[in-house]
Prior knowledge:
By secondary structure, this protein is mainly alpha-helical. The chain has 9 helices and no strands.
Amino acid sequence: MAKRGDVTREKILQATEDLILESGFSATSIDRVLESTGLTKGAFFYHFKNKEALTRAVIDRYSRREQLQITAVLDRARNMTRDPLQQLLICIGLLIEGMETEIREAGRLNPGCLYGSYAYELPVVDSEARQTMRETVVAWRTAIRRQLDRIVERYPLRSEVDLDTLADNLLAVLEGGLILGRLLDDAQQTIEQLKLYRNHVELLFSSPREGARS
């Protein structure tokens, strides 16, 4: 059973994340967090020294969740097949499936990415929090790039492609889809963009090299 203090801390973190996604970092004051949670200032400052400490904790929590997500979907895909190209295509399919489930259950997709909200206000975000965000983005890039390296060992590319850029493209599609979806009030935008990315990846590679191991 979670301790009462842990429950309160988690309540503050979740409320802060929701407010940042809704209104942005600068507009998310401690007073707004208190109003959202119904907590006292004493309860807040017991857990967080100031807004900067809260920001770091929110980003740390979000970053751990993001890194666990990419690891989990890649692990699931690798358990389904030994083919590296199919693994990546399945991984993208699992991301799509997760979003479709979220829309069915919540009636909408998450309103955005926390990093996207912070990215527009980086000058007012402390260096430690910025570094955590960069490390998470690099972790996503590295995981996808390693998978692409496995693919090119078996499948020749149809045309010259920078694999780092192709790995980054997945994040760009996710972030861009979320922004488009929010602007157009269309929860399907990110899903449709991911489907296009999946098709693009599939078309980039030729038939397997002769003698390549499955």
